Amino acid sequence: MSNHPIEGMMNTTLEKIKQMVDVNSIVGDPITSPDGTVIIPISKISYGFASGGSDFPSKVQSDKEFFGGGTGAGITINPIAFLTISNGNVRLLQIDPYNSSADRIIGMVPEVVDKINGFVSKKSEDKKAKKEAAEKIAVDEKKEEP
After folding, report:
1. How far apart are CA 70 and CA 6, in angstroms?
2. Domain range annotation of the chain
3. Distance of CA 41 to CAs 13, 84, 87, 104, 121, Å?
4. Cys-Cys link to 71, which of 5, 51, 120, 129 (CB 3.0-4.6 A)?
5. Quick one: pLDDT band at residue 145, thresholds 50, 70, 90?
6. Could you count the other beta carbons within 10 Å of the beta carbon of residue 116?
7. How many CA atoms lie within 13 Å of 105's alpha carbon, on the beta-carbon side?
8. What is the rounded CA–CA span in Å between residue 122 and residue 103?
9. Torsion sign across C-alpha atoms 130, 135, 137, 138
């Protein structure tokens, strides 16, 4: 039993879509700026696919079947964000407006993590500086004792 002609049209269209869309379409190639910042574009891909056809009766008595049909597809690639890596800091710079609170929270995570790390580091440095100052005062007091 042979395949129906619409199967061939659908397979051809799907193969063409696969050729056009690859992982580099979603997460682009990294771009390095002169100051060493790495920028990675991130895109959203949407595509649609349609096919249809019909068998037509033959007026002539024969084994040949008549078929008419068509297929089509459309692809949209929209850049949505850039991932930047600069001096060990990773940030997501979103192009699209946030659609929900969850999107907004996810977009803020790298910045919040950076702020927390900075706060913890500053507290640690302040503690260390106070300890060193206290030790220096204690040493100076011992030197002053007769």
Report:
1. 8
2. 1-96, 98-146
3. 27, 9, 18, 19, 31
4. 51
5. low
6. 10
7. 3
8. 30
9. positive
